[in-house]
Amino acid sequence: MKQLDWNQLDESARRDALARPTQSRTDDLSGGVARIVAAVRERGDDALREFSAAYDGCTLDALEVTEAEFAAAEAALDPVLKAAIDEAAARIEHYHRATASKPVAVETAPGVRLERVVRPINRVGLYVPAGTAPLPSTALMLGVPARVAGCRSVVLCSPARADGNCDAAVLYAARVTGVHRVFKIGGAQAIAAMAYGTDSVPRCDKLFGPGNAWVTEAKLQVSVDANGASIDMPAGPSEVLVIADELANPVFVAADLLSQAEHGVDSQVILLTPSKAMIEKAASEVEKQCAELPRSEIAVKSLAQSRLILVDSLAQAVDVSNRYAPEHLIVQVQDPHALLDGIESAGAVFLGEWAPESLGDYCSGSNHVLPTYGHARSYSGVSVSSFQKQITVQDVSAAGLRAIGPCAATLAAAEQLEAHRRAVTLRLAALDARETTEASP
Amino acid sequence: MKQLDWNQLDESARRDALARPTQSRTDDLSGGVARIVAAVRERGDDALREFSAAYDGCTLDALEVTEAEFAAAEAALDPVLKAAIDEAAARIEHYHRATASKPVAVETAPGVRLERVVRPINRVGLYVPAGTAPLPSTALMLGVPARVAGCRSVVLCSPARADGNCDAAVLYAARVTGVHRVFKIGGAQAIAAMAYGTDSVPRCDKLFGPGNAWVTEAKLQVSVDANGASIDMPAGPSEVLVIADELANPVFVAADLLSQAEHGVDSQVILLTPSKAMIEKAASEVEKQCAELPRSEIAVKSLAQSRLILVDSLAQAVDVSNRYAPEHLIVQVQDPHALLDGIESAGAVFLGEWAPESLGDYCSGSNHVLPTYGHARSYSGVSVSSFQKQITVQDVSAAGLRAIGPCAATLAAAEQLEAHRRAVTLRLAALDARETTEASP
User: Which annotated residues bind NAD(+) (chains A, B) (predicted)?
Assistant: First the structure.
């Protein structure tokens, strides 16, 4: 890991210090994905079966997971793992229910009542990767808020193994969250199937979930097609930024850095600390712990693009962190709450030495689908709101129209939108006529 | 306007009946916009000045609106219009404050406290078109929620007229809402400038606002670039759907249909009613009122792609409306509230005969930047939340880690993420060691 002193860097070196690994949408990738999407739109299930054979190495007859397969998956699952999935689902539901949007009603003028109502997105599609390892936790993180939101059709796609089955833990997690239908489809073809629908796979209004470069590119492509589907957020490699003071435990700091580094070779981890000693200790602990990891080869590569940065104060650490806008921000300092007000951009924040990121990844109750690659500057993590729409309802009485109609008419006239103006003035005239009639003997 | 009977249509004819005018991203448009974006990224302000000369027909020295220009705009403005802008801004602020996200805190297990905090998006860019007419109301609809959200840098771009000035009402509205800086730039070049920054225009994290096909395409292009900016929502032509019963006033129904039809030749308006007589009356009123409009030429063209559809009941009207997912839904029936629960997808809903859409467009307090083109299936209109991020903060005590750590460790092991597991188990071991020490004599 590169060691840097923030206050010795000029602006360009600072930019380099916080630069993320380049994510380029190569023409090869875009073209390849566009061909897959086109094939799925043209040939539907046949194309899906061909891609499953080519990419997942499995021959599928039915694309949908059957009741018998769900039952077999549940029967095969370690009871300890089942209990952990149940436990995590319950806590995720607890937090997500608490943070769901509530309806609001307010009178903005006498007779003008505005109500904000909340409606589920009817048809949602969830993608759960199963590349280097299956991710039942992602099924929980997407399935639970979809259920809390009340989505009517919740579809989940996850690639099958070569034996034609999906991972048992993913299937069990999907069932626990109440996902309605699961399909054994992966990659860009799964995204295309959910965005446009096939004979087997129902069309979805919005797609959620992480994935590799092909999945990410497919999500982008369907999201910019007016006849495609919207998506949760742009994806990028996982990342963590740790702020530590001189009293932090370097064993914990190193463990947290490594828990992101093991994700993928393009993951990035950053330590910010005002303590020179902490940089030395964390570096040596990272080296020591990394050697013991089964995925140390991946971690070593991602550590190569990672940084241990000396800052002059915790306040400066917060500034640098805000500039980076990390997906995960771990604050291992004596008084972590004192820094919270200054934190502006992060996907999720973990306070204190007993809050490893892994808790949020799995079972504290918060969502682990978070904005990466600096998108935390403008995006939030997935929540129940991601599965809902908010609609403003305007309930206006005759008195309300009298109160605010003239203002609308003036603005419509200024914008040269005469029909907008008349929709108001015709009604005001009708009210006047009515009053005249009522007032006459 | 085409007249149709929903129950006489087969599925394919129903699809046609609700089809929107095609929005195709032609290669010409994409390529043209990509060249503009590239020019702005490469040559910054120089490129902006060239495009202003070429497209807006004006020679600009300074791109930013000066204090003197703001003062001159305010001095030149009709006091009645000024008052209307002030009045609308106050009501928009009232509603937007009431619907802003609140922080939430919840304990999901003993010692595991999750807090959802809300932070403004720091740097936002607003686009206010001034094509066929300037739109001060759009400056209000974007500027007010940006201020309520607490955004630190609020930039607004709007094209200059040939005389090198921006519209006075737009400038006044921008000032009323507290927009920090206004630039006299329009079109795709304005979007590029705000997404990437130039010497004059500050770079923004998220861009908002409607625009023509060039602006829309530019927003899409910068939104799929990881180094670009995020956007409020995909744009499309404006549209209204009116549900009317046999007792509705056809004069009001026609006025509401026309208030969308005058927007642009690609606008679409739809009437759903169980009353044959209403279809006849609305058609003849539309014809009569349309002839009186200054923009009747536009309205006639958009009416050509619009429909008057007979349904068998108000319940069926709601079903058809949900399928269409209109930007604006006006419900002119005797008991409009009875239909509200069934309404699933719409940008904004207007209940009863005294609630023309124009009120929501200008001054009831709700936002008029709404999802069009069926995007109401998965998008909400612009709100304060559009200018904010929600961050989950995890505050975990040693007891909390003990309570939920084993669940996280089990799930991490199932996902073969050993470093994730160890970030938990190392801490649990440290707690055990500490207790042993404390327990010894």
Answer: 127, 189, 212
The tokens describing A435, both together, are 């009053």
* Residue B173 belongs to some domain of the structure: yes
Picking from B235, B204, B163, the residue whose alpha carbon sits closest to that of residue B381 is B235
Q: Which of A229, A221, A159 is nearest to A195 (CA)?
A: A229
* Amino acid present at A138: T
User: Is A260 within the bounds of a domain?
Assistant: yes
User: Is the domain of A94 the same as that of A227?
Assistant: yes
Residues in chain A with CB shorter than 8 Å from the CB of B389 are 345, 376-380
For residues A68 and A204, membership in a common domain is answered with yes
Q: Using pLDDT thresholds of 50, 70 and 90, give the confidence band for residue A299.
A: confident
**Which residue range is the domain that position A344 belongs to?**
236-380
Find out whether B237 and B263 touch, Cβ atoms under 8 Å.
Answer: yes
Residues from chain A contacting residue B220 (CB–CB below 8 Å): 224
Pairwise CB contact (< 8 Å): B230 & A375: yes
Residue of B136, B361, B389 with shortest CB distance to A420: B361
Interface size between A and B, measured as CB pairs under 8 A: 424
Average pLDDT over residues A21-46: 91
Percentage of chain A with pLDDT > 70? 99
Which residues of B are tagged catalytic? 327-328
- Angle between helices A398-414 and A418-439 in degrees, nearest 10: 150
Query: Which of A266, A300, A362 would you mutate first to test chain B, the one with the most B CBs within 10 A?
Result: A362
A340, closest residue in chain B (CA to CA)? B393
pLDDT in tens, B42-57: 999 999 999 999 998 8
Instruction: Quote the pTM value.
Output: 0.96
The answer to whether the CB atoms of A424 and B358 lie below 8 A apart is yes
Q: Are both A124 and A41 inside the same structural domain?
A: yes
Are residues A121 and B377, on separate chains, in Cβ contact within 8 Å?
yes
CATH of the domain at B169: 3.40.50.1980
* Residue in the block written with tokens 């929709």: A423
Q: Assess whether A208 and A68 both reside in one domain.
A: yes
Q: Please provide the average confidence, as pLDDT, over all residues in chain A.
A: 95
- Residues of A214-247 as b/e, b for ≥16 C-beta within 10 angstroms? bbbbbbbbbbbebebbbbbbbbbbbbbbbbbbee
- A296 lies in the same domain as A430: no
- Tell me if residue A375 is catalytic: no
Of the candidates B81, B344, B347, the beta carbon closest to that of A410 is on B81
Q: A56 lies in a domain? A: yes
pLDDT at B155: 98
- Look at chain A and report how many structural domains it folds into: 3
Q: Are residues A361 and A415 in the same domain?
A: no
DSSP B237-282: --EEEEEE-TTS-HHHHHHHHHHHHTT-TT-EEEEEES-HHHHHHH
- Rounded to whole angstroms, the Cα distance separating B202 from A62 reads 54
Q: What's the gap in Å between the CA of A321 and the closest CA on chain B? A: 14
Residues of chain B with pLDDT under 70: 132, 440-441
pLDDT in tens, B10-21: 999 999 999 998
| pLDDT for B264 | 84
Q: How far is CA B267 from CA A322, B2, B208, B262, B270, in A?
A: 42, 15, 21, 8, 10
User: B271 with B404, same domain?
Assistant: no
Paired tokens of B48: 């902006």
To which H or E segment does residue B3 belong?
strand B2-5
